[in-house]
Specification:
There is one protein chain. The chain is mainly α. It contains 40 helices and two strands. The protein has a two-stranded antiparallel sheet. A hairpin with a 5-residue loop joins β1 (188-189) and β2 (195-196). α1 runs parallel beside α4, α11 (260-273) packs across α13 and α13 runs antiparallel to α14. The protein is globular. It starts with 21 loop residues before the first helix and ends in a 6-residue tail after the last helix.
Length: 1021
């Protein structure tokens, strides 16, 4: 089974195809064709079974099953048709097939899949499918209309939805609109709980008890007046009936005046009629809502006020950047609306800045003179207004009386919210004006010491949280001040130009963000203190994770992430906050645990969706069933985090430490250190999983990986993800980015960098390419037959197949990486791994081309030695690159699983292969291949020594081990002098950084040392 674990390889007999060739284009369509053929058969059986059931029972639910399954069947057929037409066009070009053996083989495979004998039958099959596609929606409409027009039973919401869908699929939008108008909806409730509806109030289902629901076949839920109006408004807009759409939105807004989507719909409908007149009508209706509807509400409505801001913004964005008085008036109008909204909602709504943030950006970008980044007069007015707001609401000078009355408490809460909003406005504008950010902050924003003083003052008169004494899980009003202060500190820490003295006091990493500066230490210490007071605020924890990630304190970042309590689907949306940090910090086992949790989540979700979809169908919730299936198909199965987790598990598996799998890492470390001295972890490369350089052990694991790759939710399946991927189809790679970036909404001045979707895909597929090469190289080396009597061994079918698979994978890997950005050491080590794979192919199969009569053991040895000499030069160039300087500890932690371990495994695999051919380690002085490999091994050993030295210097803080040196004492003193936090808080943060980096040492250095020790055998006598 393992020898066939190379999906997609045996369909391509041409290893040198151009990425734009018909073979590549046809290959890209084959996986889609296979999937669509299976899906179409499934939907066909579903539609046929439902129709037979409906004839037997005459139940409305079963007729609706038939109708909806007919639509799903039609949708699948439509996709299948498009794919078959593309394939037909490729096969119809005669020279594509006649001149290319690979194309002819693919043609036969296509005929076998579709079940036709020749190309002409494909056209006949396509014609029949077109007829089905045209017939199925009409059948669905006929069946569904019988249900909604029947008087023998109540028509549910899902019944109507199915009927409307049958019309919309056929583009009968006007008929659908007329049908919706006839629906009798249930009453529509207003925001204050009163009923307001023009529907038939008696059209409410009679539900006596659970027995009524359990014995009813299908859904009982009737159509609501709200949904009726929503669908009428949407269809009216699509049909160009904007007046009718406007009326629907007005009716909806009278009942739900704070629903923002309705306001946007109203604005769109009004503007589509006549821009100016529609704009005025929308403005008038918003003011009417403020004056009439708001009076009956308990809280102020943000929707109508926000739409006035939106209308002013629309006007400004339509300007031509002229200098006319009209343009200036529009700018002023937008500015005034920002003032009004901020003055009204700044004291009462914590989301006020989120509401106006985009409009501040519009004002800044449109009012600035063309070609400059200077603030305009209107922007300066907003900044001055914000400064006056925070100054007027600064409470640090007020008397701090703990026993405040409820009224005074509410007033203080309003003041602190206004203070926060004003500072957020200043930060938001300053961040937009990149050239003037520092100057604007100095002029208009409070200093970091003033911010911290305000936060501490808030702690004295606002209730605290006692998590261990039954306190509520809530955030404190002043937490936002801490987040703003940390942003201020990070901005200045990354913008400041360090003096030579400061450079001596700081420990550098691969980027300026890795520098330990006084401001970053203060930010970490401040956030630690804030989390003590408000332990349930997720934004404080996310901000802390970002700070410690910059400082490469991976374990502390992991501890905080675990305190967030991320579970279930949040693993897919929030794990991006910590996964890269774990790799950069050498916590590979923790990365495996988290990635494995993501794999398990997706595996269980796939099973659960089937159960939930079945229940939904039984209960008549037909669109919910489709929604769940679509969610699984389009969001979960192609999840970006799932892809990344597969690559990380494969990469980090050899570096897994069993003692880290359970319990807290730091607690276990402290327990080991109780007897004195430092803890020594029992580590071994590939102790449980992954490749380790042991030929026999690696061969067994390679076979298992090839088998496990068949399961989509297994980590090895990433090998198949890249096996069928060509450079031409890279842009079409399907992935769903489910990461929730909104959790970072508090970031204004400083934004932590996260990999883009494209970068994550490239890195993950690159990992898949590497492990594809490793697996194939190990498998082919395992079945090679040793030469006898100095003759080239005969190739078996299995050897030829595996060599072909390795060569094909190597070609794809090279094509895939063309044009991909990689740093120097990463690229040369990647090329070194590829060259070792080439050496394996040359030794086992000989060189491609040329006269096979010259294929001898001596020629193969000479070719292999030449390749390995080139590889040695690559490894030597990696030693001299910046990737191994003392400032790149985090980069070395990334290279260890990505490049170092694979290179070591391939080197040991080549060594085992050479030994079979009589070129063992001890013959380095007599055999050219053995000598070349020994030179490579010793050069690689020197590279590992350089990395160990770099890691040692990376962890050096200017003093002895586990101590704070003189340089850091000066750093602590400088940080304390900023007036943000006390010296103890800075020491606390610094202690976390030192402990985390020591954990990195214990989980990285032993593996480097083990590999270096193993390479020493290449110079033993």
């Amino acid at each position: 089974g393992g020898s066939k674990g190379n999906a997609g390889d045996d369909n391509d007999d041409n290893d040198n195809v151009d990425e734009a060739s018909p073979v590549s284009a046809l290959q890209a369509q084959l996986p889609k064709l296979e999937t669509l053929l299976k899906a179409t058969k499934y939907y066909e059986r579903m539609q046929t079974s439902s129709l037979q059931l409906a004839k037997l029972t005459a139940q409305p639910l079963h007729f609706q099953w038939t109708a909806i399954s007919s639509l799903w069947y039609k949708e699948s057929l439509h996709d299948l048709l498009a794919t078959m037409e593309k394939i037909q066009s490729l096969l119809s070009v005669e020279e594509n097939v006649s001149e290319d053996e690979g194309m002819a083989n693919l043609q036969n495979y296509v005929f076998q899949l579709i079940g036709v004998p020749n190309l002409g039958e494909i056209e006949s099959r396509i014609s029949k499918l077109r007829q089905k596609v045209a017939l199925l929606p009409r059948l669905a409409e006929t069946l569904s209309s019988r249900i909604v027009t029947s008087d023998r039973h109540a028509v549910s919401e899902n019944d109507w939805d199915v009927y409307l869908e049958t019309l919309l699929v056929q583009d009968k939008k006007r008929e659908a609109l007329e049908a919706i108008a006839k629906i009798r909806g249930t009453p529509m409730s207003c925001g204050d709980g009163d009923a307001q509806s023009t529907s038939d109030d008696n059209h409410v289902p009679q539900i006596d008890d659970e027995h009524t629901i359990e014995n009813h076949v299908g859904s009982l839920l009737p159509y609501t007046q709200r949904k009726k109006l929503e669908r009428m408004a949407g269809l009216s807009r699509e049909l160009g009936m904007h007046g009718e759409a406007e009326g629907c939105y007005r009716e909806l807004l009278l009942a739900f005046p704070d629903q923002w989507t309705y306001w946007l719909g109203l604005l769109d409908a009004c503007s589509a009629l006549t821009d100016e007149e529609g704009w005025k009508r929308c403005w008038a209706f918003a003011e009417e809502a403020i004056s009439t509807v708001e009076g009956g509400q308990k809280y102020a409505l943000r929707g109508p006020y926000l739409v006035l801001l939106e209308l002013a913004s629309v006007k400004v964005q339509s300007l031509d950047n002229g200098n006319s008085a009209t343009d200036a008036a529009m700018m002023t109008a937008l500015r005034d609306e920002i003032f009004k909204y901020g003055n009204k909602f700044g004291p009462v709504a914590s989301c006020c800045f989120a509401d106006v943030r985009s409009y501040l950006g519009v004002l800044v970008t449109t009012s600035s003179p063309p070609g400059t980044n200077d603030p305009s007069k209107d922007v300066l007015h907003v900044l001055q207004w914000a400064k006056e707001l925070w100054t007027a609401n600064f409470q640090s000078n007020d008397s701090a009386d703990v026993d405040v009355s409820p009224d005074e408490f509410r007033e203080r809460r309003k003041k602190i919210r206004t203070f926060i909003f004003a500072v957020q406005v200043i930060y938001g504008i300053a961040a937009e004006l990149h050239d003037s950010t520092a100057q604007l902050l100095q002029t208009y924003a409070p200093s970091e010491s003033e911010m911290v003083t305000e936060w501490r003052t808030s702690l004295s008169f606002l209730p605290g949280v006692a998590p261990k004494d039954g306190g509520q899980k809530e955030v404190l009003p002043g937490d936002e001040i801490v987040l703003l202060t940390s942003q201020y500190l990070q901005f200045h820490a990354n913008e400041a130009k360090l003096t030579p003295v400061q450079q001596q006091q700081s420990s550098y990493d691969s980027t300026s963000k890795g520098t330990i500066t006084p401001r970053l230490l203060c930010a970490a210490g401040l956030l630690e203190e804030a989390m003590d007071h408000s332990p349930y605020n997720p934004h404080l924890k996310i901000a802390s994770i970002g700070i410690y990630s910059q400082l490469h304190a991976a374990h502390r970042a992991l501890t905080i992430y675990q305190d967030l309590g991320v579970k279930q689907i949040q693993l897919d949306s929030c794990s991006y906050l910590i996964l890269p940090t774990l790799i950069r910090g050498g916590l590979y086992t923790s990365a495996i645990k988290l990635s494995t949790s993501i794999l398990r989540l997706h595996g269980s979700t796939s099973k659960e969706v089937k159960d939930y979809a079945t229940r939904a169908l039984r209960n008549g919730l037909l669109f919910k069933a489709k929604e769940m299936a679509t969610f699984q198909k389009e969001r979960m199965r192609p999840s970006l985090q799932l892809l990344q987790s597969k690559g990380l598990v494969m990469d980090a598996a050899p570096l897994m430490i069993l003692s880290d799998l359970g319990g807290d890492i730091m607690a276990a470390r402290q327990q080991q250190q109780k007897g004195g001295g430092r803890s020594i972890l029992p580590v071994r490369l590939g102790a449980e999983k992954g490749y380790c350089g042991n030929v026999d052990e690696d061969a067994t694991r390679a076979e298992k990986i090839a088998i496990d790759a068949e399961g989509h939710f297994n980590a090895p399946s990433i090998l198949h993800a890249v096996a069928q991927l060509s450079p031409a189809s890279l842009d079409d790679f399907v992935s769903s980015d489910n990461r929730d970036m909104t959790v970072n909404s508090f970031e204004i001045l400083h934004h932590n960098s996260h990999s883009t979707q494209g970068d994550t895909i490239i890195k993950s597929l690159r990992r898949g390419q590497m492990h594809g090469l490793l697996t194939r190289a190990i498998m082919v080396a395992d079945v090679v037959i040793a030469p006898k009597k100095g003759k080239v061994p005969k190739s078996t079918d299995e050897t030829v197949y595996r060599c072909h698979s390795l060569r094909h994978s190597l070609l794809r890997a090279k094509e895939f990486l063309q044009g991909v950005d990689m740093d120097g050491v990463d690229r040369v080590l990647w090329e070194a791994c590829c060259q070792l794979c080439e050496a394996i192919i040359v030794v086992i199969h000989g060189s491609d081309g040329g006269d096979k009569s010259d294929d001898t053991l001596a020629s193969r040895e000479k070719a292999a030695a030449s390749i390995i000499d080139s590889t040695t030069q690559l490894v030597q160039s990696a030693r001299t690159s910046e990737g191994c300087s003392p400032s790149t500890g985090a980069r070395i932690c990334q290279l260890l699983p990505d490049r170092i371990v694979p290179l070591f495994v391939l080197l040991e695999t080549v060594a085992g292969l050479f030994s079979r051919f009589g070129w063992g380690k001890r013959k380095r002085n007599t055999k050219a291949a053995s000598g070349a490999l020994a030179d490579l091994a010793l050069t690689f050993r020197d590279l590992l020594s350089d990395m160990l030295c770099a890691m040692s210097q990376y962890r050096s803080f200017g003093g002895g081990h586990n101590t704070v040196g003189v340089g850091l004492e000066s750093l602590i003193e400088t940080g304390a002098g900023l007036g943000v936090v006390e010296e103890d808080s800075i020491r606390r943060a610094l202690k976390e950084i030192i402990s985390s980096r020591e954990l990195t040492e214990e989980r990285v250095d032993p593996f480097l040392a083990q590999m270096r020790e193993s390479l020493n055998t290449f110079e033993e006598p």
